[in-house]
Amino acid sequence: PQVTLEFTTLDGEVRPVRGCEPLADGQAVPVTKDFNSCPNQVDIPNRQVLRQYVLTYKDSSNHAHPIGDCQPDPDTMMEITEKVADCPIDEDLAAKTATVQSVLTFIAEDGEEQQVRGCAPSSTDAPYLMYQAFGNCEDLRDLDRLQAWAQFQWAYLDGKGILHPVTECAPDEDHPFPITESTSSCPVSIEVP
Questions:
Q1: Dihedral (C-alpha) 154, 159, 160, 162: value to the nearest 10 degrees?
Q2: Three-state secondary-structure class, residue 26
Q3: Which of 6, 34, 84, 150 could lock onto 102 through a cystine, CB 3.0 to 4.6 A?
Q4: Burial grade of 30 (CB within 10 A; 0-12, 13-18, 19 or more)
Q5: What is the model's pLDDT at position 82?
Q6: Is 0.90 surpassed by the pTM of this model?
Q7: CA distance 121 to 119
Q8: DSSP labels for 39-105?
Q9: Residue 11 DSSP one-character state
Q10: Distance from C-alpha of 22 to C-alpha of 4, rounded to nearest angstrom
Q11: Which of the four pLDDT bands, split at 50, 70 and 90, describes residue 182?
Q12: CB 156: neighbour CB atoms within 10 A?
């Protein structure tokens, strides 16, 4: 650093005595990286976080002065990871998909987990497709009209093969089947007086 000597006239005007000069005895002031004054640089596409710093020096009164702007420190790269456990599945009945969601986090320099993005569609898990699952519902019967319908639930299988119903049971109204009477499978009943 260099110093400038100046004085103030009686009418309040500040005038320099002489221009900037180096400190006496060639004294150097150390320049340090201040990480606390800058936010982290988050790079979601490349899945990394870099700490940023601003160079500072302290004057003879021990006040810190920044030199320039915040800049990333490539030696402090922290990896961003995806976590699906903290988010619900986004079930879109209109699109017939169930989309895995995740948060993006990193482990900060203090060892604490920090979140950089809330729940959003996962970039690693493809959406599950919904289908009509008929196995968990009883048939719907209309004995007055002698018709029946298989019932289904919209559901999806997750990555572990577990079935997740999304809707209640509903009849497959496009495919009714008739109810018929059959006496061939019933035993004959004879009543003796």
A1: 0
A2: helix
A3: 84
A4: exposed
A5: 94
A6: no
A7: 7
A8: --EEETTTTEEE-EEEEEEE-TT--EEEEEEEEE-GGG-EE-EEE-TTS--EEETTTTEEE-EEEEE
A9: T
A10: 9
A11: confident
A12: 20
